[in-house]
């Protein structure tokens, strides 16, 4: 089962208003029109579970998917949580020692990534910054967190990054990470009670240019250097998220330094049990919000 957000076709077959639904092998069962992710996450896991149980009626088929977030859902991310991420940050940076220190420090690196209205969904275009010469996808397991800190579910995140900007100066991290088309989530949210071990999920990344696959790699969340509950605890330690929050847990797959995304590419990210997030690559001007 997955919690998805997508578009019902109207009488002409074109996508209509976005609706939330619970997707299973029988199709998409719509949730009430006033359903919101924020309200479902506003308490704890029990309330989230009861909110999904409101899906009723005959199964329908959503014409296409959107990102599984509300317009104002906050998306945060953790960095340097895998050895490969640490190596990639050191390769790009003019100040590599800061990343070495963060990798083993008690306090993780946490940074704001996006608001829901900027986030792209399955089939929607991500973007590369026009002022960056080196851009990569970063496939990540993301946790969906209730207001009380309980983990409600998991989804796939592409933490698209402008590595040339990030590497120039660590203080440029927000510009490298936060921009139109710089975040994708989807295809939906798998409830936490259906993911028995989040540390045993295979992750696969494939990038195509035209009809040719130009990069592919695989790894596992078993390589995660930090505990997910510890990342969540640090995020909530001095803050509140009354409508829940999404936290990407870091990447274990980063293309080499001679690779950069270009408009026209296609990025495919798969995580065991969560599905497949496929996004074409465009420019910031291609992002329709």
Report on the architecture of this protein.
This protein has 289 residues and is an alpha+beta fold. It folds into 2 domains: 65 residues, no CATH class; 213 residues, Fumarylacetoacetase-like, C-terminal domain (Fumarylacetoacetate hydrolase, domain 2), CATH 3.90.850.10. Helix content is 17%, strand content 38%. The strands form 4 sheets. A 6-stranded mixed β-sheet has the order 6-5-15-9-10-12. A hairpin with a 5-residue loop joins strand 9 and strand 10. Helix 3 runs antiparallel to helix 4. The longest helix has 10 residues.
Outline of this structure?
The chain has 289 residues and is an alpha+beta fold.
Rg (C-alpha, Å): 18 Å
Principal-axes geometry comes out as: globular
Query: Uncertain segments of ≥5 residues (pLDDT<50)?
Result: none
Mean pLDDT: 92
What CATH calls the topology of the largest domain is Fumarylacetoacetate hydrolase, domain 2
**How would you characterize the largest beta sheet?**
6 strands, mixed
- What number of domains? 2
Q: How many strand segments? A: 17
Taken in chain order, the helices and strands follow as EEEHHEEHHEEEEEEHHEEEHEEE
In which order are the strands of the major sheet placed?
6-5-15-9-10-12
How much strand?
35-45%
Identify the CATH class of the largest domain: Alpha Beta
CATH architecture descriptor of the largest domain: Alpha-Beta Complex
> What's the helical proportion of residues?
10-25%
GO molecular function: hydrolase activity
Organism: Microbispora siamensis
Protein name: Fumarylacetoacetate (FAA) hydrolase
Family: Belongs to the FAH family.
């Amino acid at each position: 089962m997955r919690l998805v957000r997508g578009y019902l076709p109207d009488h002409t077959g074109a996508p209509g208003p976005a609706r939330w639904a619970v997707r299973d092998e029988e199709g998409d069962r719509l949730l009430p029109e006033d359903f919101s992710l924020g309200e479902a996450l506003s308490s704890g896991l029990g309330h989230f579970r009861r909110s999904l149980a409101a899906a009723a009626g005959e199964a329908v088929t959503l014409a296409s998917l959107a990102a599984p977030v509300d317009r104002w859902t906050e998306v945060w991310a953790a960095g340097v949580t895998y050895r490969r991420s640490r190596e990639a940050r050191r390769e790009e940076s003019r100040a590599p020692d800061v990343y070495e220190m963060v990798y083993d420090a008690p306090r993780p690196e946490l940074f704001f990534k996006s608001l829901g209205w900027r986030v792209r969904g399955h089939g929607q275009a991500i973007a590369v910054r026009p002022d960056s010469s080196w851009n990569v996808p970063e496939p990540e397991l993301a946790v969906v967190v209730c207001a009380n800190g309980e983990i409600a579910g998991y989804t796939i995140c592409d933490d698209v990054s402008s590595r040339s900007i990030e590497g120039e100066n660590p203080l440029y991290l927000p510009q490298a990470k936060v921009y139109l088309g710089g975040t994708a989530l989807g295809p939906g949210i798998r409830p936490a009670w259906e993911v028995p071990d989040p540390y045993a999920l295979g992750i696969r990344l494939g990038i195509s240019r035209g009809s040719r696959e130009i990069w592919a790699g695989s790894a596992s969340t078993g390589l995660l250097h930090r505990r997910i509950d510890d990342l969540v605890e640090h995020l909530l330690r001095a803050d509140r998220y009354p409508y829940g929050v999404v936290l990407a847990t870091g990447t274990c797959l980063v293309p080499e330094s001679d690779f950069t995304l270009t408009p026209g590419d296609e990025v495919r990210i798969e995580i065991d049990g969560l599905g497949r997030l496929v996004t074409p690559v465009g420019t910031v001007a291609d992002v329709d919000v």
